[in-house]
What we know:
The complex is a heterotrimer.
Chain A: H1 3-23, H2 32-60, H3 66-72, H4 91-112, H5 118-146, H6 150-163, H7 168-171, H8 175-182, H9 189-206, H10 229-243
Helix pairs in contact in A: 1-2, 1-8, 2-3, 2-5, 4-5, 4-6, 4-9, 5-6
Chain B: H1 17-31, H2 44-69, H3 78-103, H4 109-118, H5 134-155, H6 161-189, H7 193-212, H8 224-229, H9 237-255, E1 265-267, E2 272-274, H10 280-290, H11 294-307, H12 309-321
Antiparallel strand pairs in B: 1-2
Helix pairs in contact in B: 2-3, 3-6, 5-6, 5-7, 5-9
Chain C: E1 8-14, E2 22-28, H1 32-43, E3 51-56, H2 68-76
Antiparallel strand pairs in C: 1-2, 1-3
Amino acid sequence: MSARAEYVLRLADTSLVLAQQLGAWVGHAPAIEEDLGLANVALDLLGQARLFLAYAGELEGRGRTADDLAFLRDPQEYRNLALAEQPNGDFAQTIVRQFLLDAYQQELFAALVSSQDPRLGEIAAKAARETRYHVRYSGGWVVRLGDGTQESHGRAARALIELWPYTAELFDADPLDESMAQARIAPSLAALEPGWRAAVGAVLSEARLECPPPAAFRWYGKRGEHGEALGHLLAEMQYLKRAYPGAEW
Amino acid sequence: MYSQGLDQPGGPPAAGASDAAREAQFLAKIAAEEKIEPKDWMPEGYRQTLIRQISQHAHSEIVGMLPEGNWITRAPSLERKAILIAKVQDEGGHGAYLYGAAETLGVTREELIEQLLAGTAKYSSIFNYPTPTWADVGAIGWLVDGAAIMNQIPLCRCSYGPYARAMVRICREESFHQRQGFDIMMKLARGAAAQRRLAQDALERWWWPSLMMFGPSDADSRHTAQSVRWKIKRFTNDELRQRFVDFTVPQAEFLGLEVPDPALVWDAASGHYRFGAIDWTEFQEVLRGNGPCNRERLAARRAAHEAGRWVREAAAAYAAKQPARAPAAA
Amino acid sequence: MTDVRWPLWEVFIRSRSGLEHKHVGSLHATDARMAVEHARDLYTRREEGVSIWVVRSSDITASDPADADALFEPARDKVYRHPTFYEIPPEVKTL
């Protein structure tokens, strides 16, 4: 698989894994309105994933469709950010995870709009509009939880501390990130960081939550270094397609 | 039909000349196909019947998110996953519209949900059946949503304004629900032998419960007459059930699937399908709480409600801390 | 244990520029920002609304149906307010 295809797969897989995680909440959210809100974000992310996956398949040139890539790759072939595969946990954990990634995608997609790759730019333009709403939604909830009750504050704070180490991956450029930045296909990760820290800092401050101290978790999902949760997530997602090889649904 | 004729009218109208005059005016409005709106005078029986019917419908939408939501994480393609999320999202939205309509009658959503979770409120029996296979998702869309549409279109002309308007919105969104279900069934029926077997098996498990959705037969449904007089119910249970059978059997034939009813036969003289006897004891058992998934459905809703309690409280607490908006300058 | 109440809001949507806002229903939310987001997710999934208004239900003042006679009847006999009351000769084209 070419470098560019692999890079696009990183974008696809993060959105796909997040969408799959949120899909599990529909019907079980704290209020009907949040069932709808979470479903809305899941649908947007799923749409992004399908576009990125289709493009990755085309770039690869082996005839793999978006569904082939989603359902027939093993966990070690997935290239999502590790943050995306952390378990749903309670609503605080889900919303904090969502917010950290929404804020990241907001910087990333805004920059990708001017990619030297027009196809990526097109997908990013649509995704950027959606992500602006996602950040509003998840950010709004981080504030309500952080500045709500003692219990909600405690849960949000715990979630933040648990998830913070996975944010190190967001801005740690590896050779693939660097070559994409060189070719102006993707922005440099360093360029995205200040915007993300400012946006996240502002929301955390309004939420009366403290930014955890730097702590880096260095098993990077974008390099295929996954924990055990992803295996279960994908087993559930892929089982029906794999159980009936070649069948159309 | 999501209330399946379980609603009971309230007691006789309160005595008093002015009430008699108001009731005459109320009935005249109904006869003239005018809508009754929230602050209009209405007989207490009308109000209570509507609260029960609308809330049962709302509960059905919310509980109905569960059997299909069960397959969101396992949908066999990305497109099917997206469609299913959108459908279940719609159902949640329908529940919200309907609780909103019920709230115009003087109850709160919180009270209604407490009743559901306490097991004292009813919801459509159909959602107490399991979805063990992907084909069940197709069958629900095709048969259950098909039956629902049959009942919902006349409800768009219900005499109570907020309910009628909610139904118009719901009907607009509902037609995609049935089509996506039928589309799933078509794919299966035209697929591998194993897939055809899944489709046939699902039809066999959902056919009779879908017919039961229309409620007891007219002879056994004592309260239909009053609901028809008040234009809450526009057609009887049997009328709707017959229409459903007439529409759906040709669809099953098109799919190449066999309806599990040896007594099913086309009666050219009447222009309708004659069909076999419904096992009402199964219906009663499911209503009583002894269906295959009654306990799971309520347990899931209770768990979500309990787990979400601290979230709802957080949102309320946060809002209470915000300074009140300054009144407009004098 | 009684659940905390999320206040009721009424939702008005303008679906296209040039049209007025229409009442589409109600929803529950704890603050105005949440109400707008919920309204968007609940009421604009199919037609992209151009504008959303949310108002706390308790802030709406409604006329009393019992007063309908007093409020609205007097307008009924002032038919001269309707254009159809006037006979305009057909030769006058643009009135």
